[in-house]
Amino acid sequence: RDAAMIVGEEIPAQELFDTIKGLGVNLLEEVNVFDVYYGGNIPEGKRSIAVRLMYRSPDRTLTDEEVNVAHAAILSNLKDRFGIEVRGE
To answer: Which of 47, 51, 80, 85 is the most core-located residue (most Cβ within 10 A)?
Structure first.
């Protein structure tokens, strides 16, 4: 799943990455930052950071509901910790 977030420029992308990995979400296999964007409709002092979150279980196929719950938990944590806004919500 991809998530594009509006983040304050003072928050390093590496800190977001480390936070996501450090949450210990057992279904989360991989995190990659694939885009950073400034300008356009992004407010002054902020930028858009897009991450790809790969969810997987070693022994079964995940349901949409399982992935939705894990994904929502990660984004909720980032909102609480960094005040991010998810683009497209």
So the answer is: 51
This prediction's pTM: 0.91
Rounded-to-integer distance, Cα 32 and Cα 30, Å? 7
User: What span, in angstroms and rounded, lies between the C-alpha atoms of 73 and 67?
Assistant: 10
Strands ordered across the beta sheet of 28-37: 28-37, 46-55, 2-8, 85-86
Structure tokens at 61: 């196929």
Environment class of 27 (CB within 10 Å of its CB; exposed 0-12, middle 13-18, buried 19+): middle
- Give the tokens for residue 88: 């497209």
pLDDT digits (tens, 9 = 90+) for 2-29: 999 999 999 999 999 999 999 999 999 9
Coil vs helix vs strand at 12: coil
